[in-house]
Every structure is written in structure tokens, then in C-alpha cells.
Design brief:
Strand content: 15-25%
Order of helices and strands: HEHEHHEHEHEEHEEEHEHEHE
Number of helices: 10
Number of strands: 12
Helix content: 40-55%
Structural class: alpha/beta
Strand order of the largest sheet: 3-2-1-4-5-12-11-6-7-10
Distance between the termini: 30 Å
Length: 302
């Protein structure tokens, strides 16, 4: 096992991806390998054994514990070897490292997110808005630092030729998402589509006034002005990025889900402007992380 200092040194500025050996995890490993190679960053593949659960389950069966843990280590090594081989097939000349951790998978990836360039995790299709609540996917997306990318297992190519799409809601959390989206669009040399929805009127403000204090006829004008104001500084910083603005009264979930069918990356903030205090992952972000048709980058403010 590596010490914490060694772990953080290895993960620093790297693309970190979690794997459990599933087809879903394989899709995440492929995307992470392609991304690490494109960005010129190291790739670290992590598998967590969650031995605390095993030790608690075995309890007083000490004679069994050693053999069970040894078998889990062997299985974990096998998972990592296969994931590394997959990554090397995608990026044969790239640096790929692996780490077998005894920690809970979510806690391990969250710890790595403190120093990683980004953390990547796979997502399976789920049923219902609250499906997989408390899973590794939502735990890492909610509590991770920086950016977490959730890669769907759709059977489609992990990288497309479509635009980068960002949900712009005018909040401080949304500002971090805008910065990440502009950087990704510039790096990929593609168009950035900014999607702004204003159906959550009771939570919104424009120029210090509640939306409900603004005449309905002026709301759309106000929303276009708000979006233009939010984008101005970023467009000056990234003049190479062509930007398309989309303002809609429809909810952000529906609009962003639609764009995810053609986008190569969807970027959202960890919470929207209507998010409750203390809720680390907004309902829109968590739903998209599980249901979008393209990789979703969930961005936490610095």
C-alpha cells in the first residue's frame, strides 16, 4: 500500500479514474485514457477494496479474514491489470499508473480529487430520479473537489465531434462551470453552447431585483441580458471560442438532456441557483449525471 503522501504526489494534476472491472467502468477508463493523452497529463487508475466492510462482516472469524482479504487483493490486482491494458490500447505511448486501495471507493476518489486535474467515473442507466442515491457515482460527484466527469455506458463513441454544452444559471457555482466549459471548448477547438433556463423564477434575481418584481414582458430580455453579462468576461479570456446562446423558459434538466444527445461534453455546476443550502449536488446535476447521453462534468467552485 502507498502512504498518503505518495498517493497525492502520484495523483497531482493527473486524470484519475475509478474502476470496478465492469463494462461501465471500462467506458470510463477509455474516456479517461483519451482525455489524459489529449491533455498531456498522467493517468491514474484506482480500485478500492472497501475492506472496512469486509472486516465488519467477518467479525470474529479471524481465521477466514486473512484468506478473504488476500483473495480480494488478487482480484483487485486483476481488475487493475485489465484496466491498465485497456488504457494502454487507447493511449499506447502514455504514462498509466494504477493504485489498489483498501479504502471505500468513493472516499478514495474524493481524496484524490483534492489534487487531481479531474476525476472520472462510470455511470449506468438508472430508473427514477433518486436511483443510486448514495452510490459511488453520486458520492464522488457531490463531495469531490474540482471537476468530476461521469461517463455513461451507452455503447456510443466516448468522444464525439459535437459542441461543449454548459448549463449557465447565473450563480457563483455556475460561474465555475462556465470557466471549465470555456477551457474545454478552447482545448477541443469546438463551439460552446450556453443553455440558460429561467423556469425557477422564485429563486432568481436580476440586477438585485427578484424576478417576480419584473414585468413578465421584460423577463426574456432580462434573461438574455443576464446571460450576456455572465459570458462577457469569459469571451474576452477565450476569444477563440465561438459561443451560441440558448435562453429557454423550459426547465434546465429537459434542455440539457436534449443537448446531451449531440454534445461531446456537458458541463454543469454542482448546485443550481435554486439549490438548498447544504445540498452538495443539485437535483439537475445528479439527474444528468445518471441520464445524459454524453459525459457530464460536474464542477465544484474553488
Amino acid at each position: 500500500m502507498r502512504h498518503d503522501a505518495d498517493r497525492h504526489q502520484l495523483a497531482s494534476a493527473a486524470v484519475v479514474v475509478g474502476t470496478d472491472g465492469s463494462a461501465t467502468a471500462d467506458a470510463a477508463v477509455r474516456w479517461a485514457a483519451e482525455t489524459a493523452a489529449r491533455k498531456g497529463r498522467r493517468l491514474l487508475i484506482v480500485h478500492g477494496l472497501d475492506l472496512a466492510v469486509t472486516r465488519a462482516a467477518l467479525g470474529s472469524h479471524l481465521t477466514m479474514m486473512s484468506s478473504v482479504i488476500e483473495a480480494m487483493h488478487r482480484h483487485g490486482d486483476h481488475i487493475l491489470a485489465e484496466a491498465r491494458a485497456l488504457a494502454c490500447d487507447i493511449a499506447p505511448d502514455h504514462t498509466v499508473s494504477t493504485e489498489l486501495s483498501e479504502a471505500n471507493p468513493a472516499k478514495s476518489l474524493i481524496a484524490h480529487s483534492e489534487s487531481a486535474h479531474l476525476v472520472v467515473i462510470g455511470a449506468t442507466r438508472s430508473v427514477g430520479t433518486l436511483a443510486h442515491l448514495g452510490s459511488t457515482l453520486l458520492a464522488v460527484s457531490a463531495h469531490g473537489h474540482g471537476a468530476t466527469v461521469v461517463v455513461p455506458s451507452t455503447g456510443q463513441p466516448t468522444h464525439r465531434s459535437g459542441p461543449v454544452v454548459v448549463g449557465a444559471d447565473g450563480s457563483p457555482v455556475g460561474e465555475a462551470a462556465l470557466g471549465a466549459a470555456f477551457a474545454e471548448a478552447s482545448e477541443r477547438n469546438v463551439e460552446l453552447v450556453t443553455v440558460h433556463s429561467w423556469s425557477d423564477l422564485t429563486f432568481g434575481e436580476y440586477a438585485g431585483s427578484s424576478y417576480l418584481e419584473i414585468p413578465i414582458v421584460d423577463l426574456e430580455i432580462a434573461e438574455h441580458a443576464l446571460l450576456a453579462e455572465r459570458l462577457a468576461g469569459w469571451q474576452e479570456k477565450y476569444p477563440d471560442v465561438p459561443v451560441t446562446r440558448k435562453v429557454s423558459v423550459a426547465g434546465p434538466r429537459e434542455q440539457l438532456a436534449y443537448w446531451s444527445k449531440s454534445a461531446q461534453l456537458l458541463v454543469v455546476g454542482s448546485r443550481g441557483r435554486g439549490g438548498f443550502r447544504g445540498l452538495l449536488l443539485g437535483s439537475t446535476s445528479s439527474w444528468l449525471a445518471q441520464h445524459a447521453d454524453c459525459p457530464v462534468m460536474v464542477v465544484h467552485p474553488n
